[in-house]
Amino acid sequence: MQTTETPYQKHGFIDDIQGIAFGSFMSSVGVLLLTHMGFVTGQTAGLALLISYATGWSFGLVFFIINIPFYWLGWKRFGPRFVAKSFVAVAMLSAMTLILPSYLQFGAVHPAVAAVLIGCLCGAGLLALFRHGSSLGGIGIVGLYIQDATGFKAGWVQLIFDAVLFLIALTLRDPTTVAWSFLGAVVLNMTITINHRKDRYIA
């Protein structure tokens, strides 16, 4: 009996809008829970958080500014379409982290549950962005660049960067908080490492 395989179809414009909006929103909820717990995280968001904790400046504003230099690398390797989508995702996340606290607050959350939930929320958000040709800039762009060029997983690139960032975080947060935070980063990066594979998904 002969079977007919359904050909893969690339995402359309509406698909990309939905995917980028979903990814940005899920990530912003993860960031909101993260700041509620006083946790830190990796990647560019983690760097922005450390600066925000140390200075009192708005996370959204710091995150948006930090990402600007990385767009050059994204433009050079992935082209203007990727950069434009990433710029929109970063801008949406920055805006939502400023707006969401007026509409969403958290009560008591066990740090283990919070760490895993943060990793799942941000991991799902980043996967959606990656699959729609976008990212949250910064180390995400570097990770995708290295994965595309060498095959070394983007999740591992981010995990290495995170390890260095968490060592720095020990100067601003107590070891227990940093340990719970690192659990969240591991969940996030393992989610990306296991699920972001071109041989399993074609966009």
TrEMBL record:
InterPro entries attached to this UniProt entry: UPF0750_membrane, YitT
GO-annotated cellular components: plasma membrane
Compartment annotation: Cell membrane
Keywords, comma-separated and alphabetical: Cell membrane, Membrane, Transmembrane, Transmembrane helix
Transmembrane segments: 20-39, 45-70, 82-103, 109-130, 151-172, 178-195
Topology of this chain in the membrane: Multi-pass membrane protein
Predominant location category: membrane
KW Transmembrane helix (keyword) present: yes
Protein name: YitT family protein
Source species of the chain: Paracoccus amoyensis
